[in-house]
Each structure stands twice: as structure tokens, then as C-alpha cells.
Amino acid sequence: MKTTFKPIFVTGCAGFIGFHLSKRLLDEGFHVLGIDNMNDYYNVRLKQDRLSLLQKHPNFIFVKGSIENLELLESLFDQYKFEIVIHLAAQAGVRYSLTNPHIYIQSNLVGFANILECCKNHQIKHLIYASSSSVYGENEKIPFSVSDRVDRPISLYAATKKSNELMAYTYSHLYDLPTTGLRFFTVYGPWGRPDMALFTFTDAIMKQEPIEIYNYGDMKRDFTYIDDVIESVYRLMKKAPPTDSFSPYKIYNIGNNRPVQLHDFIQVLEAHLGKKAIKKFLPLQSGDVPETFAEIDDLVKDIQYKPKVSINKGVEKFVEWYKDYYKLS
């Protein structure tokens, strides 16, 4: 059965970024078809609660399934005639990739190959996909620029994301498929992932348990608030897709452009929680880098928007959500 409308296809719609993006698109009047396998990498209840909010919207269609299922994807592309695909589904987490490598190969490589094949076969107008700041690996030049070489990944997760960029480039070049890759820098905010530092620190501090501080706290991260990320992705979706005589391919850093020292980040969190952290200092973990810092000149030039939410305001918003979600006074 063919449909009379063409929804935007969002993979990983019950994930942190996928949920917020789907909600923004629905609020803007778009139809959205979201797919998610609802895996248990972290608490499924959080994914279910995000999804329940999306399912209240009449323009939202949900399909529970995996991007590794090529037959399912082909049937969805055939039925709904997507023109824009925003691919956010992936196995996330740097440290998890050290102990569960095969999951990353299936989701991030096989799954992404399936997305590319469907986009090619159905001649979609624009594929926007999630990469990661992790691709910069051992890059010592600060800030990180999309023009830097990124051929020294230090985790399998980073290697799969760099592979995604190479695969997208090939499809752009061979099949004239417009692709835009987004290197996200430490995204945080309400409904965030429980395996990320802000969430794990908040949990531990509220339970009066120690927080683990790697590299003895000598870390900087370009924390990027979720609303700034979604505004950037939305504007990139609305603008014309990349065009080039050689290949319609583009990469952007999606970062705040203002790295924060980990000690300062913890102090801000303590202030908003009204509690002091019990600190356990540890050496740098395998796969981690001491500093991330996004150069975003291309992004600002192309969408006329620069991320603007301060770490103080962003952490405040997260703490408000956290206390409300867990019904804490």
C-alpha cells in the first residue's frame, strides 16, 4: 500500500537525539516515521517514555525494528517514498565497544550499509547521518576541524563512525547521493543517555555514591546542549543538500565551540543539585581522549546559527528534568 504523504524517516527515534529531533519535526508540522529496535544497552524504560510522548502526535508512525533488517527497510522505503532520511540509529558508547565489538559491526556498519543501499535504490533527496567527535582520535591539533586527518581512531566505536563517513562519501560519489555527516560533540540535556557523564554523575551524587573521574580530572569536553544540536540539524535539513561536481558530500562539527574543564563541570552540577560529589580519581581509560573542541566555522556560515546554551543553563535544565522524571524534591 502506497501512502499519499512522504514522512521524514528518522532512525533511532527513541534514542536521546532521535527523540528530540522527531519531536521538533512533529512540532513544525512534518510527518515522521521513526524506527528503533528498543535495545537494552541502557534502561529501556527511558526509551519507552520518550517514545510514548512521540506517539501522542497524530503525524508520528513508529516501527519497532532493526536497521540490520534490509528487507524491512526496503519495504518501508517502498511504501512511504521518503525524500529525507535522518539516520541516528547506532550502537553508541566508546567503552562498551571495547568489550562488545560485534554489536558495533552489525549496527554501525551493516546497518549503515543497508541505509545507504535503500537511499540509493529509492533516490532520496538528502541523507543526514550521525558521526561523532570520536573520529578525531589522537588528533593533537586544537580545535578539531573537519579538514583535519582522522585516520587514527582509538576505539572501535570511532572506527565505525569514520567508516560511515567513508561509506557515505563513496555513495555520494558513485550514485550522486547527497549526504551530510554530523560529528556530534558530547551532547547532553533532558532525556539524555544514562551512560553519559552528566547522568551518571547526577545519579551517584544524589545517592551519595562516588563519581569516577578519569585522567584525574584533567579532561576538557565540548559539551553541547541538546536544543543547540536539534536547531543545527533542523537548519541543515531545511537548507539545500550538498552539491558538488565531484560528490554531493559534506561533514560538519556539531559542537558548542567552548570546552569546559571537567572539574568546573562537576562544580556546576554540584551547585544545581545542592550536594557535593564524592570523588574517585582514576587514570585515563582506553579509548578516551583528554580534550575535545569543535571548530564550527562551516556550520555557522552555512546555517547562520551558533550553539549558545551555556554549561550553567544546560546543566540547570537537565537537573530540573532529572528531578521531575524521578519525582525527587
Features:
Rossmann fold; single chain; UDP-galactose 4-epimerase, domain 1; 7-stranded parallel sheet; 16% strand
Secondary structure: elements and pairs:
Elements (H helix, E strand, L loop, with lengths): L7 E4 L4 H12 L4 E5 L7 H11 L5 E5 L5 H11 L3 E4 L8 H4 L1 H21 L4 E7 L23 H20 L3 E6 L2 E2 L8 H10 L3 E4 L6 E2 L2 E2 H13 L10 E6 L5 E2 H12 L4 E4 L15 H7 L7 H15 L4
Parallel strand pairs: 1-2, 1-4, 2-3, 4-5, 5-6, 6-11, 7-10, 8-13
Antiparallel strand pairs: 9-12
Helix pairs in contact: 1-2, 1-8, 3-5, 5-6, 7-9, 9-11
Task: Characterise this structure.
The protein has 329 residues and is of the alpha/beta class. It folds into two domains: 8-188 and 223-254, 3-Layer(aba) Sandwich (Rossmann fold); 197-221 and 258-325, UDP-galactose 4-epimerase, domain 1 (Alpha-Beta Complex). Helix content is 41%, strand content 16%. The chain is built from eleven helices and 13 strands. It has a seven-stranded parallel β-sheet with strand order 3-2-1-4-5-6-11, with helices on both faces. Helix 3 (70-80) packs parallel to helix 5 and helix 7 (197-206) packs across helix 9. 45% of the residues are buried. The mean pLDDT is 95.
